[in-house]
Structures are given as structure tokens and as C-alpha cells.
Amino acid sequence: MFGNMADMMGLMGKMKDLQSRMKEAQDELATIVESAESGGGMVRATVNGQKTLIGLEVDKDLVNPDDKEMLQDLIVAAVNKAFENIEPKIKAHLQKATDGVLPNIPGLDLGGFMK
Questions:
Q1: What is the DSSP string of 44-83?
Q2: pLDDT digits over 52-92, tens only?
Q3: Other beta carbons less than 10 A from residue 58's beta carbon
Q4: For residue 8, is pLDDT > 60?
Q5: CATH number for region 2-114
Q6: Can you tell me which residues the record assigns to a coiled coil (predicted)?
């Protein structure tokens, strides 16, 4: 009986440790950045690991009221590409942060903790 209680306490301690590591890891995600370009470098978007757009550069030659739709498309493309590029960095960071706390469970995706 006492063995099960000790196991349960140990598991609760690991979960508390995991929670604090995940919180710390999520805070650190703000320091992981990725940029992507579209339009041959005329639009550049920079995002962080907290999935926030933190920078957007647009070549002045693209700023033309008559070609607004093309500019919008290039911005969307650059932002989406930057978010796509940062995804593996987010996963790697979260895995590293929780390494040794949880057993390696195939298929366990800690990305769900981010939402």
C-alpha cells in the first residue's frame, strides 16, 4: 500500500516539475525567431516561437495602391512560411525542456500544451 502512495507522490512531483519546465520553456520560446521571405526577398516576415509576428519588412517598390492585392498575397506567403519554418524549432525546444522528466512516449506531442 505504501509503495503505491510513494509512486503516486513521485508521479505528482514529476508532473509539478513538468509544469514548471513547460512554463519556463514557453517563456523562452519568445527568444526563438525565424524569418522567411516572399517575392524574391521583397517581403520578409519574422516570427517567434510563441507564434507571434514580430517583424515585417516590405520593399518600398511594392507599396503601390494599384497593386495592393499582390502585396497582401506576398505578406501572407512570407508570414505563413515563417510560421511553418519555426514549428520544428518549437518542438525541439519543448522536447529538450522536458527531457528526463517524462519517459519517451512515442506519439506524445507536447505541442498541445502551447495552445
A1: EEEEETTS-EEEEEE-GGG--GGGHHHHHHHHHHHHHHHH
A2: 999 999 999 988 889 899 999 999 999 999 999 999 999 99
A3: 16
A4: yes
A5: 3.30.1310.10
A6: 8-35
Inter-residue contact 98 to 114 (CB < 8 Å): no
Residue 85, φ and ψ in degrees, nearest 5: -70, -30
Domain range summary for the chain, segments of one domain joined by +: 2-114
What confidence tens digit (pLDDT) does each residue in 41-54 have?
999 999 999 999 99
DSSP-derived 3-state class of residue 115? coil
Residues pairing with 55 in the sheet = 46
**Identity (one letter) of the amino acid at 97?**
A
